[in-house]
């Protein structure tokens, strides 16, 4: 009777952690899946925009003493960087194959990492939690949860709703959906594809920068922080379906919950079957493989992802 409420509280906390990770991944994967689905560009530099958004937020917050102002400043910075990258580099690669795109955008990642290291130094920066979300919220009696993590979940849901309205109810959204189905036909109808691509890259950069800024108070802001999250974002869009924002949202929630719950409970489950030393090693290995096994299962059943999309 004493353990049951405690276990329920811990499970709820892990579920909320999974949701928080999921909406963070969605904010990154949404821009990535739009760029990949509409433009057919493998953009490894998307993780660098996430990192630059985090550093911009940390720098402005340190200079002004206002974390919300730092987060707001990260949005135009990341959007502008996305626009510049598209105009200077990506626009020259649309007719090239994916290998050229990977090499070029990987070069951008290396350049961004070194530039950030020169500007801010090699040591991690730390972004304080905003004062209005510094405490905890009792989601259930006896179950406090950090208010900032709840704010991240709320922000992710707002972004998801806003993107749904943008794509389903606006002319830009119509062009995005049409471009995801047939880019050549959209160009043949007189749409300025170059402008559409630049807007998509800027929008993707803005979302990545928002994710980086929101993650700043939770994670250390450091050089190279974009690469691990970029891998997870690619898993998300493969599971959800390339080019589908709805798929990105569902895939991100699935990946966030699977990764968090797997790391929390697989080692414990392994201890029920194996000696503690072996259980910890095997459980940790299985936990790190969970999302990739999940991706393999989804691809075996639905090669285009849960919500379809481009090949």
Spell out the blueprint of helices and strands:
Layout: H1 3-39, H2 46-64, H3 67-88, H4 98-120, E1 136-140, E2 143-146, H5 147-169, H6 171-181, H7 183-188, H8 193-215, H9 226-240, H10 245-271, H11 276-301
Antiparallel strand pairs: 1-2
Helix pairs in contact: 1-5, 1-6, 1-8, 1-9, 1-10, 2-3, 2-4, 2-8, 2-9, 3-8, 5-6, 9-10, 9-11, 10-11
Membrane topology: Multi-pass membrane protein
Subcellular location: Cell membrane
Family: Belongs to the binding-protein-dependent transport system permease family. LivHM subfamily.
Would you kindly provide a written description of the structure presented here, covering whatever features stand out?
Keywords: Amino-acid transport, Cell membrane, Membrane, Plasmid, Transmembrane, Transmembrane helix, Transport. β1 and β2 (143-146) form a beta hairpin. The protein starts with a helix and ends in a 10-residue tail after the last helix. By secondary structure, it is mainly α. Helices cover 75% and strands 3% of the residues. The protein has a single domain (17-130, 143-301), classed as ABC transporter involved in vitamin B12 uptake, BtuC, CATH 1.10.3470. It is globular and about 65 Å long.
Q: Helical region count?
A: 11
CATH class: Mainly Alpha
CATH architecture: Orthogonal Bundle
User: How many extended strands?
Assistant: 2
The order of strands across the largest sheet is 1-2
Strand content: under 5%
Average pLDDT rating: 85
Helix content: over 70%
- Into how many domains do the coordinates divide? 1
Q: Extract low-pLDDT stretches.
A: none
Derived structural class:
mainly alpha
Major pleated sheet:
2 strands, antiparallel
Q: What's the SSE pattern?
A: HHHHEEHHHHHHH
For the terminal residues, how far apart are their CA atoms? 52 Å
Shape, per Cα inertia axes: globular
Looking at the structure, the CATH topology is ABC transporter involved in vitamin B12 uptake, BtuC
Radius of gyration: 20 Å
